[in-house]
Amino acid sequence: MALWFLAVLLASYIGVFSTWMNVPIPLGVAAGLPILAFAIWYWSSGYFREYVLSLNPVVLTAVQTWRIGGITFIILMAMGLLPPPFALPAGLGDFAIGVTAPFVAYALSKKALPSKAFVAWHYAGIADLVVAVTTGVLSSRGATGILAHGTTTRIMGLLPMSLIPTFFVPLLLILHIICLAQMRQLKRERIEPSGRPSLSLA
Q1: Alpha carbon 51 to chain centroid, angstroms
Q2: Residue 169: in which H helix or E strand, if any?
Q3: Does residue 194 sit within a domain?
Q4: Angle at 115 between CA 97 and CA 88, to 5 degrees
Q5: pLDDT digit string (tens) for 7-40?
Q6: For 168, how many CA atoms within 13 A lie in the half-sphere containing its CB?
Q7: 10 Å Cβ neighbour count for 172?
Q8: What pLDDT is recorded for position 194?
Q9: In-domain check, residue 18
Q10: Phi-psi category of 195—alpha, beta or left, where left has phi over 0 and alpha has psi -120 to 50?
Q11: How many domains does the chain have?
Q12: Is 179 domain-assigned?
């Protein structure tokens, strides 16, 4: 993770992402490659898969609290630096996930959260990230920017904002995927007599 962060930080510093914002291929590669690498590693390595499934879902869920910072998109929109078609769904969606994350994590730690609610919340978090990426591309200044009218997502290719799509978005998406994988594993291994899966943190 440290090497990944340093790589995208360096790429941002030398202008790799800002130079290609008309055709945001480097940005897309930087966002998608870590997710692809994780998926390949997860399915090909039993040791890595066992490690991933052993991580504490309470901690992984609580980390999503950082998404409260999505309100920054709204502030930048008000300053005329980001387009509403991107800033509103990305900012409000991130803020909603970030605000609820501590409560979901707490309920999970107390074993008071139904498994369906846990799964639904993580899927909502994934959907928010997908919407943010999609509207970001559609609001870019290139040929794909069909939602851009004057203001574009140009600053998302500049430091420090470039770290969001190239590091934080794929990282948080991976954390969502891990939690869902853990739930799927628990459904296989531990079924209550009532037939309803029970989330255990042991």
Answers
A1: 20
A2: helix 169-189
A3: no
A4: 15
A5: 999 999 998 887 765 666 788 888 999 999 999 9
A6: 17
A7: 22
A8: 47
A9: no
A10: left
A11: 1
A12: yes
